[in-house]
Structures are given as C-alpha cells and as structure tokens.
Design goal:
Helix content is 32%, strand content 34%. Strands 1, 2, 3, 4, 5 and 6 form a six-stranded antiparallel beta sheet that branches. It is elongated and about 70 Å long. It is an alpha+beta fold. The longest helix has 14 residues, at 2-15.
Length: 118
C-alpha cells in the first residue's frame, strides 16, 4: 500500500513538470488606429478561411480557428490609442503553441491591408 502511494505521488509530481510553456506572441507596432487594425485583421482571417469564435472591439481581442485542416487557432490582441498600436498574435495547433514565425505571412498581409507597406 505504501509503495503504490509513493508511486502515485511520484507520477503526480512528474506530471507538473510536463506542462507546456506558454506560447510566445509575435508582436508588431503599427501606425494605424486599433479599431481599424482589429477590423482589418478580422476580415483578413475570414478571407483566409478562419472562423471567428470571439471578437471584442472594446477589449481589442479576437479568437479564430482555421475551418479546415491542419486546424490552427489564432489569438489576436490590439492595444494602443489614437493612430498607433501594438498587435500581438499567438498561433496554436491542437492546444500546442506554434513558432511565432508561422504568423509572419499574416502580419505582412495585415500591414498591406492597412496600407503600411512601401
């Protein structure tokens, strides 16, 4: 009995070590109003086949999932005031974070839609 209790305790202790690291966001500063940035990001994601699960303009948050395989999820945060703000993207697949570089094409397209590329 004591041996099984120690085994169970060891397994529970090691399970705490297996928790995934929080995803690293891909951030960029844009010279566009946060409301405009959020709206254009939502249209961009819908055009690429993402389904918007949640969107809150007051909080500057957007959650979307890709409607086809491989099933990426994207979380977007926009912060700032006036004519500038910071955009933060996080991508996941199956609950696991994806490298931030996966989001570079989305960020480039967002800058293009906002007219911020040369």
């Amino acid at each position: 009995m004591k041996r099984s209790f120690l085994s169970l305790l060891l397994v529970a202790w090691l399970a705490g070590c297996a928790t995934p690291a929080p995803p690293e966001p891909r951030e960029i500063h844009l010279a566009a109003a946060p409301e405009t940035t959020l709206r254009e990001a939502m249209h961009l994601l819908m055009d690429r086949g993402y389904v918007i699960r949640q969107a809150d303009g007051d909080l500057g948050r957007l959650e979307a999932v890709l409607g086809r395989m491989p099933g990426y999820g994207v979380s977007l945060r926009v912060a700032g005031q006036g004519d500038g703000g910071q955009v933060s993207f996080i991508a996941t697949r199956g609950g696991r974070p994806l490298p931030p570089t996966v989001l570079d094409p989305l960020l480039t397209d967002l800058q293009s839609r906002l007219g911020l590329l040369p």
